């Protein structure tokens, strides 16, 4: 349960456009690709920057509100089902590739980057990013890392 005071604080951070506690909005984020799992969040919040994420986490920590991060919701283990309520933290806005360091072979990205976009960005530099979950057209790098996702190219 999020009090009206805490709700106001959260809206001040992300704006009302990125805070959804409507029944329809909560229902949409009450399940993922996992069959037969569903639980309602109290709100769905879509931050636009790491600074906003940091402020949200501080408020939720103070008020003991559970946070469930969510990329594209394609996981098959109910990882984004908010079984104890709280907020679903949606990374749809944070989808920028910040830096490709060709010398050190590292890439710095925001967590909501779609896997295939990252693969294409690496290929444009003549590089190869092997992890290739079959969901790569929709899955995010944040979800991939958390689920240790890959496919046959990674295996090879
Ligand atoms: C058709 C289909 C094909 C698939 N093929 C494969 C495959 O070949 N290989 C494979 O490994 N998996 C596969 N999967 C499973 C799934 O796609 C992967 O687990 C994928 O990595 C999930 O990415 P996502 O962005 O959808 O993450 P989500 O489902 O949104 O989240 C997955 C987990 O990561 C956490 N999370 C998400 N973002 C963050 C973040 N920014 N910070 C911290 N935690 C975060 C969530 O809380 C959740 O626990 C497939 C799924 C489908 C539906």
Summarize the helices and strands and which ones pair or pack.
Layout: H1 4-14, E1 19-20, H2 23-28, E2 43-45, H3 50-62, E3 67-70, E4 87-90, E5 97-101, E6 106-109, H4 115-124, H5 141-147, H6 152-155
Parallel strand pairs: 2-4, 3-4
Antiparallel strand pairs: 1-2, 5-6
Helix pairs in contact: 1-3
The structure holds flavin-adenine dinucleotide.
Flavin-adenine dinucleotide (FAD) is lined by residues 32-33, 68-76, 79-80, 91, 111, 133-135, 139-140, 142-144, 146-147, 149-151.
What's the CATH class of the largest domain, please?
Alpha Beta
State the distance separating the first and last CA atoms: 47 Å
Order of helices and strands: HEHEHEEEEHHH
Q: Sketch the major β-sheet.
A: 4 strands, mixed
Helix share, percent: 25-40%
Broad shape: globular
Number of strands: 6
Bound molecules: flavin-adenine dinucleotide
CATH topology group of the largest domain? Uridine Diphospho-n-acetylenolpyruvylglucosamine Reductase, domain 2
Number of domains: 2
What attributes characterize this protein structure?
156 residues, alpha/beta, Uridine Diphospho-n-acetylenolpyruvylglucosamine Reductase, domain 2, four-stranded mixed β-sheet, two-stranded antiparallel sheet, 6 helices, 33% helix, 14% strand, binds flavin-adenine dinucleotide
């Amino acid at each position: 349960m999020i009090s009206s005071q805490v709700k106001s604080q959260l809206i001040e951070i992300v704006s009302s456009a990125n805070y959804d506690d409507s029944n329809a909005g909560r229902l949409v984020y009450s399940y993922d690709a996992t069959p037969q799992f569903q639980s309602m969040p109290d709100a769905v919040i879509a931050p636009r920057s790491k600074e906003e994420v940091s402020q949200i986490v501080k408020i939720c920590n103070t008020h003991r509100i559970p946070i469930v991060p969510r990329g594209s919701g394609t996981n098959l283990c109910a990882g984004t089902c908010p079984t104890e309520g709280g907020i679903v933290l949606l990374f749809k806005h944070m989808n920028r590739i910040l830096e490709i360091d060709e010398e050190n072979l590292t890439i710095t990205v925001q967590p909501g980057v779609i896997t295939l976009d990252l693969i294409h960005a690496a290929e444009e530099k003549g590089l190869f990013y092997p992890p290739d979950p079959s969901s790569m057209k929709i899955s995010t790098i944040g979800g991939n890392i958390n689920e240790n996702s890959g496919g046959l190219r990674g295996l090879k």
